[in-house]
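Researcher: I'm preparing a figure for a lab meeting and need a structural model of a single chain. I don't have an experimental structure, so a prediction will have to do for now. The sequence is pasted below. Please return the structure as tokens so I can convert it later.
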Amino acid sequence: MAEVTNELIYEVLKKMQDLLSGIEHGVHEVRNEIVALRGHLIVVQQDVANIYGRTASIEIRLDHIERRLDIADAAPAPGI
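Model: Understood. Here is the structure written out token by token.
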């Protein structure tokens, strides 16, 4: 069995420190990507909310037009 010396321990610890530094850098990059994805998700959620709001506004206007033209259905369509 090889003799364990301070130099051997130092070399092993130095390699471990380099590996941990690389892992830390990788985790930092992943964290930045997650933050960017969160930002994109927020924008998509806002876009969807705007689409729903605009669709609701169009439906209200269409209902108003149908009532003015007296062409509204007797009962609202299912799911509305």
